Amino acid sequence: MSHHTLPRPGASVFVYEWPVRLWHWANALFILVLIVSGWFIARPLPTMQIGEATHQFVMGYIRFAHFAAGQLLTVGFLGRIYWAFVGNHHARQAFYLPLWQKSWWRDVLHEARWYAFLESRPGIHVGHNPLAQIAMFLFMVVGMTFMIVTGFALYAEGAQRGSLPDQLFGWLHDALGNSQLMHSLHHLGMYFVVIFMTAHIYLAIREDIMSRQTMVSTMINGYRSFKDDDAA
Amino acid sequence: MSQIETFYDVMRRQGITRRSFMKYCSLTAAALGLGPAYVPKIAEAMETKPRTPVIWVHGLECTCCSESFIRSAHPLAKDVVLSMISLDYDDTLMAAAGKQAEAALQDTIEKYKGNYILAVEGNPPLNEDGMFCIVGGKPFVEQLRHAAKDAKAIISWGACASYGCVQAAKPNPTRATPVHKVITDKPIIKVPGCPPIAEVMTGVITYMLTFDRLPELDRQGRPAMFYGQRIHDKCYRRPHFDAGQFVEHWDDENARKGYCLYKMGCKGPTTYNACSTIRWNEGTSFPIQSGHGCIGCSEDGFWDQGSFYNRVTDLTQFGVEANADKIGLTAAGVVGGGVALHAAVSALKTAQRKSQKTKTKDAASKSKEEV
């Protein structure tokens, strides 16, 4: 990941195995569905008069989309955690921060200076760069866990007392005290994800153009190519 | 009163016939959601068990719980007060006053040590040694602790006793504290609401008398049979919610048609209570039926959960009036703007470096030519 084994210019290293890539794109789709449907649950569409209430299920379908995408995302996340154990070492990188490594902190500083236009040359990274690793950990691992847990706590209310979601997550309401507050926190979490998406998509494309390795294609074919024409 | 009368004795003494008594038992069973098999059980309990003494104390409160309680229709509050329980002390409802009243309280505590139910309406303020609420010349918290010491169980009436309600809303200057945070060594049953539904109050008492135990409680300590579901789960306007048909303004056509009040800030989806099933005033109506959203009065800290008229509510934690959308959109806007700016600078820098490279190349080739 850092500088100990520098790849040759023009070399390609296999980084992301297919389950990681599949998870990435499926996750992106679920998150998109969750944001859109979640927005319309908090602020519903204008009233529609398609038919009698019996024949109309607009809010019902929006909620269904939200719950279905949420459950699929959870299954995907669990699968991703499983793959962190059985996959290659790149599959583990997002799940921890090597705070005890001095070299990692050096790389963090270097990467921050590169983004602040204070370094003329970016670092070279086979996996995530250290800043990306921090972002993945904070937003994807911590943030998504938060959204899944609060989401299921809210879902438990509809599933009602004694149901499996209630037995697993219902206690959170009692710990927090008020379900309305839980809604607000879950809603705030959505913006946390939107902020991550904005930065993630921008930086992935920027690094694809400006850094010394591929980004976007790596998440499609799994190979990280190094494009230096001068010695690294 | 050495021998305590049974419920049945008292009822017969009041001229209630056996037939009316049995009717009353079936009605009570129905109100508690029990099958017909329980009717003889209730009847037997009432014929054989001595009336349970109840002490009803009042802390910081508005008496709306008492007001609600005396309007109970099934069972009638009069039946509960006169026949079922022996309400030995309730400074609002009792005839005695002053020293007599305090003596009655002391008598009851001593006579029925460990056997009486303590019903608490309101809560004790703890700041300034509890001086914000004085009962009989002493801070209420002292009366509460004294009466709770020998009680069999405690009922926390209403949002005040259960969660604190308006007097505990931020910044809570008197440090009004719910009962379960003051009395920690007794079984406490919370019956929240501002006020709780009358039939819920009398239903809880009837259950405790009939079965001589607390009803099944949920994790927050509320009777599950009344607080197991949200208003939203049993709301008669729920089909309009699922259809996506909402009241958009208080006076629009949708309001007249009785569409869902979700967009008007109805807290039905976040409130656990029996309003949409039992309703109020002998089942006549409840807030949503009369065209106003639920304000969530039976929820913990409902005064501090922002406006009654928004679903995405203010987050007072941020100090200013801001809701999740305002905070989120600001943050997302800042990040989005930052990204755009960063992209622009990145492009400029790259262009600059390229032009410098070509310049130095040009300069190099020029100097070569000159040589």
UniProtKB/TrEMBL annotation, chain A:
Pfam families annotated for this entry?
A: Ni_hydr_CYTB (PF01292)
Q: Which InterPro entries match?
A: Cyt_b561_bac/Ni-Hgenase, Di-haem_cyt_TM, Hydrogenase_cytochrome, Ni-dep_Hydgase_cyt-B
* Primary location group: membrane
The reply on keyword Phosphoprotein is no
What's a single GO CC term here? plasma membrane
The answer to whether UniProt assigns keyword Phosphoprotein to this entry is no
| Compartment annotation | Cell membrane
Which residues belong to any copy of the Cytochrome b561 bacterial/Ni-hydrogenase domain? 15-222
Kindly list the biological process annotations in GO that this record carries. Answer: respiratory electron transport chain
Gene Ontology molecular functions: electron transfer activity; heme binding; iron ion binding
* Keyword list, A-Z: Cell membrane, Electron transport, Heme, Iron, Membrane, Metal-binding, Transmembrane, Transmembrane helix, Transport
Q: How does it sit in the membrane?
A: Multi-pass membrane protein
Spell out where the chain crosses the membrane.
Answer: 22-42, 134-156, 188-205
The record's comment on protein family reads: Belongs to the HupC/HyaC/HydC family.
Q: What is this protein called?
A: Probable Ni/Fe-hydrogenase B-type cytochrome subunit
Q: Which organism is it from?
A: Pseudooceanicola albus
Automatic annotation (TrEMBL), chain B:
Claim: DNA-binding is one of the keywords in the record: no
Taxonomically, which superkingdom?
Answer: Bacteria
Which UniProt keywords are present, listed alphabetically?
3Fe-4S, 4Fe-4S, Cell membrane, Iron, Iron-sulfur, Membrane, Metal-binding, Oxidoreductase, Signal, Transmembrane, Transmembrane helix
Q: Which InterPro entries match?
A: Cytochrome-c3_hydrogenase_C, NADH_UbQ_OxRdtase-like_20kDa, NiFe-Hase_small_C_sf, NiFe_Hase_small_N_sf, NiFe_hydrogenase_ssu, TAT_signal, TAT_signal_bac_arc
MF-aspect GO terms: 3 iron, 4 sulfur cluster binding; 4 iron, 4 sulfur cluster binding; electron transfer activity; ferredoxin hydrogenase activity; hydrogenase (acceptor) activity; metal ion binding
Listed under GO cellular component are: [Ni-Fe] hydrogenase complex; ferredoxin hydrogenase complex; plasma membrane
Q: Where is this region: Disordered?
A: 350-371
A Pfam family: NiFe_hyd_SSU_C
The transmembrane residues are 21-39
Single GO BP term: anaerobic respiration
List the EC numbers from the record: 1.12.99.6
User: Which SUPFAM superfamilies would you find in this protein's record?
Assistant: HydA/Nqo6-like
Residues annotated as domain NADH:ubiquinone oxidoreductase-like 20kDa subunit: 62-207
**Record: residues binding [4Fe-4S] cluster 2:** 232, 235, 260, 266
- Return the protein name: Uptake hydrogenase small subunit
